[in-house]
Write a structure and sequence with these properties.
This protein has two domains: 153 residues, Formyl transferase, N-terminal domain (Rossmann fold, 3-Layer(aba) Sandwich), CATH 3.40.50.170; 74 residues, Formyl transferase, C-terminal domain (Methionyl-tRNA Fmet Formyltransferase, Chain A, domain 2), CATH 3.10.25. It has a four-stranded mixed beta sheet with strand order 3-4-5-6. It is of the alpha/beta class. The longest helix is centred in the middle third of the chain and has 22 residues.
C-alpha cells in the first residue's frame, strides 16, 4: 500500500492478551528485525493503535484486515466510509477460520487461494469482492506460501482501491470452518499419497511441532522430511534405505526423513 502511494490513516494492532507484560508494539507480527508492520509504521510516521485506543474522531474510507485475531465490533466496521474488508487465505466459503493454509495443506490441496471479502458479524462469511487461485510449488515452506498468498491478497486489495470499487458477491454454499489444529491433526496416516504427506510436512514444519507417522508397528515422531520417491511400497512399513535414510511406505511411494 505504501509503494502504491495509498494514504494510510493508521495501523491497528491486536489487543494484547490479558495480563501480558509487553506492550502492543513488542508482541505484534514479528518477522525479521527490520521487516515488521510496526517498523514500517514508525518509518513512515503512521499512527499505531489497538481497537480500544482508536480515537473516535479519526475518519477513514476503508478498513483492511489481514490475520487479525480480535473480532471487530460492528460499530467500528460501520465507521468505514467505503468498505471494511478482510484478506483471507482460502477460496471462501471453504476453509473459514484462523488457520486455513494448515488445513488446505493437510487436505492435500496443491491449488489454494485468497479472498478479499466484506466483513460482518460472522467469521469469514461476508460478501466477496474478488478471489484468486494460487498453485503451490512442490514442497513449499509455510513462509514462502504465506508470501505468495500475501502478494496475491495485496494485488486484489490494490485493484479494488485503484478502481474505488468494492463489489459484493454473496458466498454460495455452506462452505467449511476449521478451528486451530489439535494434537491429532499432526498425525499422518501412511495410507495417504506420499506427495500429500511431503507437502503437508514441508508446509507446516515451521510451527515447531512434531509429526506422528502412523506406521504399522508403532507411531514414529519426526520433525521434517528429506524427500520422497514414487515406487511400489509397503504401506506403514519403516526401513533404512541404501543411502542410510529412514523411510516409511505410503500408498504410492516412500517418504524419507
Amino acid at each position: 500500500m505504501l509503494e502504491a502511494k495509498q494514504c494510510i490513516t493508521g495501523v491497528v494492532l491486536p489487543v494484547p492478551p490479558a495480563n501480558h507484560s509487553l506492550q502492543n508494539d513488542q508482541i505484534a507480527l514479528h518477522t525479521h528485525a527490520n521487516d515488521t508492520i510496526i517498523n514500517y509504521a514508525r518509518k513512515y510516521a503512521v499512527p499505531i493503535w489497538n481497537p480500544n485506543t482508536l480515537p473516535s474522531t479519526v475518519e477513514f474510507d476503508v478498513i483492511v484486515v489481514a490475520c487479525f485475531p480480535n473480532r471487530l465490533s460492528e460499530h467500528l466496521l460501520n465507521r468505514a466510509q467505503l468498505a471494511s474488508v478482510n484478506i483471507h487465505p482460502s477460496i471462501l466459503p471453504e476453509y473459514r477460520g484462523p488457520s486455513p493454509l494448515f488445513w488446505q495443506l493437510r487436505d492435500g490441496l496443491s491449488v489454494v487461494g485468497v479472498t478479499l471479502h466484506h466483513m460482518n458479524s460472522s467469521i469469514d462469511s461476508g460478501d466477496i469482492v474478488s478471489q484468486m487461485e494460487i498453485e503451490l510449488p512442490l514442497g513449499i515452506s509455510g513462509s514462502k506460501a504465506d508470501q505468495l498468498l500475501s502478494k496475491s491478497g495485496a494485488d486484489l486489495l490494490l485493484d479494488a482501491l485503484k478502481n474505488h470499487t468494492f463489489t459484493r458477491k454473496p458466498q454460495i454454499g455452506k462452505g467449511s470452518y476449521q478451528s486451530w489444529p489439535n494434537s491429532k491433526d499432526w498425525h499422518i496416516p501412511t495410507t495417504w499419497p506420499v506427495v500429500r504427506a511431503f507437502n503437508f510436512i514441508k508446509g507446516v514444519e515451521n510451527w515447531g511441532i512434531p509429526f506422528t507417522l502412523l506406521t504399522k508397528k508403532e507411531p514414529v515422531k519426526i520433525w521434517s522430511a528429506l524427500g520422497f520417491r514414487h515406487k511400489t511400497s509397503i504401506v506403514g512399513y519403516m526401513r533404512t534405505n541404501k543411502h542410510g535414510q529412514k523411510e516409511v511406505g505410503f500408498s504410492d511411494g516412500w517418504l524419507q526423513f
